[in-house]
């Protein structure tokens, strides 16, 4: 594994043993479908096979990654467990008794593990209309539990916020500050902005970060939590966090029906991903030692780029051809101009 410093070392398709034709087909597909992708990068064995940026976007352009933030929160929890500051089977309510005026007795069985797997027992996300004037902990622990904790999956931003708050309770630092000390600085990520409420990082969303740094996060995950000679988070936690712990078969999105780990989604084509709204992805593929990242403003599914083009390119391996991937990347940027301009107009309303 090659570990990057500020940027990733470049590798050729030949040295990476990747069939370039499938990658060219992928860029043709993006052009044909007018997909709004801001940036993407493919990293194999720690080296960059390609990266591409839309008009107005560059390698270190930070933008909101929405629910990819949840996976960062999960790693903070894992580091805390490694440090013996908490255990996944701890009762969550015990961390917040000083914050509560009342609580429902049914929460006495809720554990950190239930928060991680989105199996709190809610039938809706009760954080949707929270304001700065609300006590988020009173709101959470007095929201009715319709299901027994651990039995029913509901994608729930409130669960991730509570996880972030647990990190703060056991470390005395915001989740973002804690990760800065324990992870960002170690793997060369500039500390991102992370939205917060009452001093607590949002946990569920709110990180502003760039594609290069997301890929570094992906390489850390791929390498079982180890960066060069330092174990940032235990391999045991990474392995456990990225297994399927609860069924998501009833989800509407066909790509989201293959299970959920500890704030990570399972892929239908194997392994797992961190994912955010509008198709922000960090896709992990252990078989080929690959990380694939997208940042976008797109409602159509972008996992097809990996499953239908990148994965076959990895499976087929290098074959000589005269294609210029650099030319496809140049065309990608050129073709993005009207798409990005249209997005700017859309975001005004």
Keywords:
349 residues, alpha+beta, six-stranded antiparallel β-sheet, three-stranded antiparallel β-sheet, 11 helices, 36% helix, globular
Walk me through what this model shows:
The model has no long low-confidence stretch (mean pLDDT 97). Strand 10 and strand 11 form a beta hairpin. It is built from 11 helices and 13 strands. A 6-stranded antiparallel beta sheet has the order 2-1-13-12-11-10, with helices on both faces. It is 36% helix and 14% strand. Helix 2 packs antiparallel against helix 10 and helix 3 (68-82) crosses helix 7. With 349 residues, the protein is α+β, with helices and mostly antiparallel strands.
């Amino acid at each position: 594994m090659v570990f990057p410093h500020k940027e990733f070392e470049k590798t050729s398709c030949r040295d990476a043993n990747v069939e370039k034709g499938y990658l060219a087909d992928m860029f043709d597909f993006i052009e044909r479908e007018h997909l709004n992708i801001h940036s993407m990068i493919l990293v194999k064995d720690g080296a960059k096979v390609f990266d591409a940026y839309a008009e107005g976007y560059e390698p270190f352009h930070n933008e909101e990654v929405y629910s990819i933030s949840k996976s960062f929160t999960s790693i903070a929890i894992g580091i805390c467990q490694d440090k013996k500051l908490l255990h996944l089977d701890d009762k969550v309510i015990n961390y917040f008794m000083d914050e509560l005026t009342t609580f429902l007795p049914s929460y006495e069985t809720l554990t950190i593990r239930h928060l991680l797997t989105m199996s709190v027992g809610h039938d809706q996300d009760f954080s949707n209309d929270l304001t700065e004037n609300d006590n988020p902990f009173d709101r959470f622990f007095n929201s009715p539990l319709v299901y027994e904790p651990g039995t029913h999956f509901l994608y729930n931003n409130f669960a991730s916020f509570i996880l972030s708050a647990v990190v703060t309770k056991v470390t005395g630092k915001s989740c973002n500050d804690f990760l800065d000390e324990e992870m960002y600085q170690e793997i060369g990520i500039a500390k991102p902005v992370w939205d917060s409420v009452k001093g607590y990082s949002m946990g569920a969303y709110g990180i502003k970060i760039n594609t290069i740094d997301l890929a570094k996060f992906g390489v850390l995950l791929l390498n079982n939590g180890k960066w060069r000679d330092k174990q940032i988070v235990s391999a045991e936690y990474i392995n456990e966090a990225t297994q399927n712990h609860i069924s998501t078969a009833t989800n509407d999105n066909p790509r989201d029906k293959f299970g959920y780990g500890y704030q990570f989604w399972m892929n239908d084509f194997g392994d797992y991903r961190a994912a955010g709204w509008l198709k922000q992805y960090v896709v992990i593929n252990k078989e080929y030692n690959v990380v694939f990242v997208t940042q976008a403003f797109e409602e159509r599914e972008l996992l097809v780029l990996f499953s239908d083009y990148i994965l076959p390119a990895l499976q087929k391996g290098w074959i000589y051809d005269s294609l210029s991937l650099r030319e496809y990347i140049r065309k990608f940027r050129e073709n993005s101009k009207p798409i990005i301009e249209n997005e700017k107009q859309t975001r005004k309303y």
